[in-house]
Design a protein that fits this description.
By secondary structure, this protein is of the alpha+beta class. 32% of the residues lie in helices and 31% in strands. The protein has 5 helices and 8 strands. A hairpin with a 6-residue loop joins strand 5 and strand 6. The radius of gyration is 17 Å and the shape is globular. The termini are far apart.
């Protein structure tokens, strides 16, 4: 099985419009492959500027936020490529597209790393942070899975949220729960809502 790193990828159009989205980068030798499904702003941006940055967010709300429509996260300019990367992240890497394997459904962009930098020490994610990442990925596959499987996986991830989540992880979980409930037409929640008014 290939190594897949869960990151937040940013691309920029020729006009400077940035697109920010979570992506699993596939390790192939010394390179990393970015494989977005069509249609995608990522593909449109890469056709104009063949560069992308991948950030490891220090706040998992970024991943949960982006998959639930919250895309306004602080960014700063990249060092070696035209583009932006997350301002708050453990580290980031910058890539130029070395080759493209075109496909009508899911083209594969082989990224050659031109710069990498660590910004804050990474000691590790706790179980709640890992659960948020898994639930966020699950929430992008709601059209592919049966409701029973979705709810079973959410219930499993909720165990880690209930035991180890801080306020940030609970907020991220609530965003994902709202998305899943709306997609499934449910009013019930796997976990009671956190925060004021819960």
């Amino acid at each position: 099985m290939p190594l897949i790193l869960e990151t937040v990828v940013t691309t920029v159009s020729a006009e400077g419009t940035m697109h920010l989205v979570p992506f699993g980068l596939i390790r192939e030798g010394e390179d990393f492959v970015l494989a977005p499904f069509r249609p995608s702003p990522t593909i449109a941006n890469l056709s104009e500027q063949p560069y992308f940055a991948a950030s490891a967010p220090s706040d998992v709300r970024v991943i949960a936020g982006v998959v639930t429509g919250r895309r306004d996260w602080p960014v700063v300019p990249c060092q070696r490529i035209p583009g932006q990367r997350l301002a708050e992240c453990f580290g980031h890497a910058e890539f130029e597209v070395a080759s493209l394997e075109d496909d009508v459904t899911r083209p594969r962009y082989r990224g050659r790393m031109v710069h990498a930098e660590s910004h804050v020490p990474f000691i590790g994610y706790n179980r709640a942070q890992a659960a948020v990442i898994e639930a966020a990925i699950l929430s992008t596959r709601l059209h592919m899975l049966e409701p029973e499987k979705i709810l079973a996986e959410m219930a499993y991830h909720a165990i880690a949220i209930a035991k180890t989540a801080g306020p940030a992880e609970r907020e991220a979980w609530d965003w994902i729960e709202d998305k899943v409930a709306q997609a499934l037409g449910r009013s019930e929640r796997v976990l009671p809502r956190s925060g004021p008014g819960s």
